[in-house]
TrEMBL record:
Name of this chain's protein: Amidase
Pfam families registered for this protein in UniProt: Amidase
Annotated keywords: Hydrolase
A molecular-function term among this protein's GO annotations: amidase activity
NCBIfam families: PRK08310.1
Amidase domain ranges (all copies): 22-175
EC number(s) per entry: 3.5.1.4
Length: 413
């Protein structure tokens, strides 16, 4: 029996794969973004020409196989923006999934269907990918929890790539407990993770919370108040405070010298060049039809010269070193996930582009540094969801997820 697809979350609501084992995920249902290999299923990557030129997969993606082996049931292949090159959630060919918690507003992308499937209750959790914000943005817009892990911590085997040095497998759920259960299945054991020497323990982490001033300046005024209130509650219940009553050091400081817009441009140039290296040959050979905005991005990516890459890579390394040094062994960043609630469907093109630029600026920190980030749903203006994010040091994924479980509920979604 197929899934209820009234929110148009699914490309294939009939896709169903039973568990292959039992374990920590017994009884869990999950969807996959339509970029994950599922044996016998042809992934669309959100584009009819991709679907036409690629046959069914012979085996499951590594992440899918792990969830099935630990007792979860796969239910449905979820919509994605075309070749994952968008954070809006609109698709010129297959339509736009309906945001259950933001009527008349975009769901965010590119893991649009994954977020809607979770927010609507069609499944318990969903796998997606995140290169420039594709888990974090739709999670914030749809009012669910989302997680982007440390880059390279979860295998990308069997997942259609976009920009490999930024690509991650991420996941979404309606509770932080479920994020953590999935994390314990997909992530390496703590001793194997970079910078980790023991089991995840939120009691003694973090000891310092940094609010990046540039990120908070990007929050829309109507959303900033709700997000700052949520950040305050977060600081009151951070690890050490839960045991000793001693709050971690918290400070709002500038973390960049040129602003987040400059970091975002470094991200875009590196990402765009990688995207064309990944998909340019197929695009040139097959001449696929893209929606206007996606087509424009691919034309821009094709124009990027290799000569600019060395300087951008050097800048990226410097940014990563700077942020990791700032965090130290037990610090974190707390910031808005997106500037404000999801924009209206069919809204002003200029406003949509400004919102996209703001979201990418906020999301580029984790992308450039390869650090793990969790986004927590917060009730924003007019009862609409927004997101509060926390970024941790490398390999602190399980600490971050365990801490999220210990926090008080921040919203009613």
């Amino acid at each position: 029996m197929g899934l209820d697809n009234r929110y148009r979350a699914f490309m294939d609501p009939q896709l169903q794969v039973p568990p292959t084992g039992t374990g920590a995920l017994d009884g869990l249902s999950f969807a996959v973004k339509d970029v994950f290999a599922v044996a016998g299923h042809s992934s669309s990557a959100g584009n009819p020409d991709w679907l036409r030129t690629h046959g069914p997969s012979l085996r499951h993606a590594a992440a899918v196989e792990k969830l099935l082996r630990h007792g979860a049931e796969l239910r449905g292949a979820a919509h994605t923006d075309e070749l994952m090159y968008s954070v809006g959630g609109e698709n010129a060919h297959y339509g736009t999934p309906v945001n259950p918690n933001g009527p008349g507003r975009i769901p965010g992308g590119s893991s649009s269907g994954s977020a809607v499937a979770v927010a609507s209750g069609a499944v318990d959790a969903a796998l997606g990918t995140d290169t420039g914000g594709s888990i974090r943005v739709p999670a914030a817009y749809c009012g669910v929890f989302g997680f982007r892990p440390t880059h390279g911590a979860v295998e990308m085997d069997g997942v259609i790539p976009l920009a490999p040095s930024f690509d991650t497998v991420g996941w979404l759920a309606r509770t932080p407990e479920l994020l953590l259960r999935i994390g314990r299945t997909l992530l390496p054991e703590p001793a194997e993770a970079e910078g980790r020497t023991g089991a995840a323990d939120p009691t003694f982490w973090p000891d310092r919370i940094i609010l990046p001033a540039e990120a908070w300046a990007l929050a829309e005024p109507s959303a900033a108040a709700a997000l700052r209130l949520a950040a305050g509650r977060l600081m009151q219940t951070a690890g050490p405070a839960a045991v000793s009553g001693i709050r971690p050091a918290a400070e709002e400081i500038a973390v960049t010298t040129g602003g987040l817009a400059a970091w975002m441009e470094i991200f875009r140039e590196l990402q765009g060049y990688e995207i064309w290296q990944t998909h340019g040959e197929w695009i040139s050979a097959e001449q696929p039809v893209f929606g206007p905005d996606i087509a424009a991005r691919f034309r821009w990516a094709a124009s990027l010269p290799e000569s600019g890459q060395a300087a951008a890579r050097t800048a990226r390394a410097a940014i990563a070193g700077h942020i990791r040094s700032l965090l130290g062994p037990s610090g974190c960043l707390a910031l808005p996930t997106v500037p404000g609630p999801a924009p209206l469907l069919g809204g002003d093109a200029g406003q949509l582009e400004r919102n996209r630029s703001g979201a990418l600026s906020l999301c580029c920190i984790a992308g450039l540094t390869g650090l793990p980030q969790v986004t927590l749903p917060v009730e924003g203006p007019e009862g609409l969801p927004v997101g509060l994010s926390v970024i941790a040091g490398p390999g602190k994924d399980l600490d971050l997820l365990a801490w999220a479980v210990s926090l008080p509920a921040l919203c009613p979604f």
